[in-house]
């Protein structure tokens, strides 16, 4: 382009039949011109020629100028030279900003006025042309910023986005937002930030700003935000692809930095979760990842289990890798809820993503259920450590869950997936739930669940037995219907049978172990008695040995059953606060006596 420009300028000079006395160099381009033509219309060239002619004392010599700093380069100078030689000034939306900046640099007021008229009357009147002007300003900084061209172009783009968001005009081959989203996607993050600032200055609604931000990010980061299945079989491992692309990582960080504040545009939770997953997968900076974690935590009550699970998975969407990220997001949400003053915790706020209104308590319960579902899905990962599972499941306070049934399901799945855990490890897994908060069906299942640790089963059975005895001793009330009594009787029978089965199995196991010990002891005594040589003395020791064995057997059984006491382990619960319609004196009457846990 520069070579063709130089050829055309040379033809103009040759047509004048006057030797060129002004040479302008712009990078690799050389323009032979006439001072008599350029000096009257360009103040910059006039001053430069005058300064170059002072040492010689005459203005007749040839002058060479270097204008490599000219905004727009050789293309913009060609238009200026053509205009100075009497040619027409042809301006388009793609070079209007360059012509305006070049005219200001050359101090050519007439050309600057022509460029301003084109910008005001044509280029900034439509969204596509305004976006083209704003894109061209990216290569003209800081001149475009100083002249206000970039700001005016951003204002025009923002106005067009507002009009399209409120009164969409679909185009052939594009959806309602497809065509103007493509115009935004062509902008750099810095230019998009100017558009967001302009939208806020024009007091655009949050839904408009959010729609523009989502459309821009999804277009610019299409390769990162795309689902793993869309990459094809040859690119299932997106981690290596994204990690190796430093430009994509820098672009992601720039897009995150250009997003509007949450107060101005509450972005959808699903979109923010995808952006957080992309930041973690692409190994973005710690600042970017933490910023996205806080953005997701602010709208976590609007996220689904699938959204949050997507954050935990790796780039291929197959294995759990980012459990710590999920834990930090949930912890940030809980901390955010706890920081709210009591008078504002019941204030209800709109949700752009889900269209729901939730109080602070309802939001916490909803997040707790979502976390339980995510924990159940993560529990199927065989390589998931106990600390990761407990960290995610225990990030929500216990009191936030009215029932622990969903959490019990997650715990049971984890224990089923990891059958090699010992008793201590299983107790650590179960430490995230409270057996006293299980429903009747869940307690019935837990009482027969051999995967649970013993203390968890006993805690559930004790609570069930306590409620049953309280119901039996509380009086009929004189008005219960026959169907209610039948249901209560069936429930008592089922609970009694479950307790009896669990207790019998454990007592049989304890007695079997004690019997094996007695046999070993008897075998040792018989071998010891063979060396005495006296049958009478041997027979005299048999009753004593039998008495000793009997005492040892009873003491061992007593110690074994005492270990079944649920109040001795970490699973013992304070049941004084259980609301069952009776006073505490009645509760003390039915409390198990001595140290043996009665299940009969």
UniProtKB/TrEMBL annotation:
<feature type="domain" description="BTB">
    <location>
        <begin position="20"/>
        <end position="93"/>
    </location>
</feature>
<comment type="similarity">
    <text>Belongs to the NPH3 family.</text>
</comment>
<dbReference type="InterPro" id="IPR000210">
    <property type="entry name" value="BTB/POZ_dom"/>
</dbReference>
<dbReference type="InterPro" id="IPR043454">
    <property type="entry name" value="NPH3/RPT2-like"/>
</dbReference>
<keyword id="KW-0833">Ubl conjugation pathway</keyword>
<feature type="region of interest" description="Disordered">
    <location>
        <begin position="472"/>
        <end position="506"/>
    </location>
</feature>
<dbReference type="InterPro" id="IPR011333">
    <property type="entry name" value="SKP1/BTB/POZ_sf"/>
</dbReference>
<feature type="region of interest" description="Disordered">
    <location>
        <begin position="522"/>
        <end position="544"/>
    </location>
</feature>
<feature type="domain" description="NPH3">
    <location>
        <begin position="178"/>
        <end position="467"/>
    </location>
</feature>
<dbReference type="InterPro" id="IPR027356">
    <property type="entry name" value="NPH3_dom"/>
</dbReference>
<feature type="compositionally biased region" description="Low complexity">
    <location>
        <begin position="529"/>
        <end position="541"/>
    </location>
</feature>
<feature type="compositionally biased region" description="Gly residues">
    <location>
        <begin position="472"/>
        <end position="482"/>
    </location>
</feature>
<dbReference type="Pfam" id="PF03000">
    <property type="entry name" value="NPH3"/>
</dbReference>
<dbReference type="GO" id="GO:0016567">
    <property type="term" value="P:protein ubiquitination"/>
</dbReference>
<protein>
    <submittedName>
        <fullName>Uncharacterized protein</fullName>
    </submittedName>
</protein>
<comment type="pathway">
    <text>Protein modification; protein ubiquitination.</text>
</comment>
């Amino acid at each position: 382009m520069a070579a063709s420009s130089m050829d055309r300028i040379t033809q103009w000079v040759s047509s004048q039949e006057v030797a060129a006395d002004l040479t302008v160099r712009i990078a690799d381009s050389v323009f032979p011109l006439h001072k008599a033509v350029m000096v009257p219309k360009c103040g910059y060239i006039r001053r430069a020629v005058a300064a170059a002619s002072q040492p010689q004392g005459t203005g007749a010599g040839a002058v060479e100028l270097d204008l490599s700093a000219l905004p727009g380069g050789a293309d913009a100078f060609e238009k200026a030279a053509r205009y100075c030689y009497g040619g027409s000034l042809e301006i388009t939306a793609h070079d209007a900003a360059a012509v305006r900046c070049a005219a200001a640099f050359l101090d050519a007021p007439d050309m600057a006025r022509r460029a301003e008229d084109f910008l005001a009357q044509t280029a900034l009147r439509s969204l596509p042309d305004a976006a083209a002007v704003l894109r061209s300003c990216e290569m003209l900084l800081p001149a475009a910023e100083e002249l206000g061209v970039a700001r005016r172009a951003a204002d025009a783009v923002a106005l067009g986005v507002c009009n399209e968001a409120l009164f969409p005009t679909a185009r052939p081959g594009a959806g309602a937002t497809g065509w103007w989203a493509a115009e935004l996607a062509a902008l750099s993050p810095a230019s998009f930030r100017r558009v967001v600032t302009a939208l806020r200055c024009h007091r655009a609604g949050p839904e408009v700003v959010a729609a523009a931000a989502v459309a821009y990010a999804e277009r610019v980061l299409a390769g990162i935000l795309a689902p793993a299945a869309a990459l094809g079989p040859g690119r299932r491992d997106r981690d290596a692809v994204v990690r190796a692309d430093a430009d994509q990582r820098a672009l992601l960080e720039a897009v995150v930095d250009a997003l509007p504040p949450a107060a101005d545009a509450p972005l959808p939770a699903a979109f923010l979760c995808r952006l957080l997953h992309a930041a973690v997968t692409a190994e973005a900076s710690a600042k970017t990842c933490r910023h996205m974690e806080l953005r997701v935590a602010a709208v976590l009550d609007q996220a689904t289990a699938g959204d949050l699970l997507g954050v935990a998975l790796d780039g291929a969407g197959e294995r759990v890798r980012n459990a710590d990220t999920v834990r930090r997001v949930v912890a940030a949400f809980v901390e955010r809820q706890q920081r709210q003053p009591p008078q504002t915790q019941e204030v209800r706020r709109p949700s752009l993503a889900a269209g729901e209104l939730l109080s602070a308590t309802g939001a916490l319960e909803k997040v707790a259920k979502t976390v339980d579902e995510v924990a159940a899905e993560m529990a199927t990962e065989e390589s998931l450590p106990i600390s990761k599972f407990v960290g995610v499941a225990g990030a929500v306070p216990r009191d936030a869950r009215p029932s622990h049934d969903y959490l019990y399901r997650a715990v049971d799945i984890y224990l089923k997936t990891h059958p090699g855990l010992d008793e201590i490890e299983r107790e650590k897994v179960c430490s995230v739930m409270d057996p006293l908060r299980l429903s009747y069906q869940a307690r019935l299942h837990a009482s027969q669940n051999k995967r649970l640790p013993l203390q968890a089963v006993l805690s559930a059975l004790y609570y069930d037995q306590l409620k049953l005895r309280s119901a039996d001793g509380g009086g009929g009330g004189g008005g219960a219907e026959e169907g209610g009594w039948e249901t209560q009787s069936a429930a008592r029978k089922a609970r009694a049978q479950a307790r009896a089965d669990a207790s019998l199995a454990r007592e049989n196991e304890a007695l079997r172990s004690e019997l094996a010990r007695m046999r070993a002891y008897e075998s040792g005594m018989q071998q010891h008695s063979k060396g005495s040589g006296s049958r009478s003395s041997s027979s005299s020791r048999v009753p004593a040995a039998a008495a000793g064995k009997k005492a040892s057997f009873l003491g061992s059984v007593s110690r074994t059953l005492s270990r079944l006491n649920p109040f001795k382990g970490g699973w013992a619960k304070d049941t004084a606060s259980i609301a069952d319609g009776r006073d505490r004196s009645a509760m003390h009457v039915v409390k198990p006596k001595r140290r043996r846990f009665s299940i009969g």
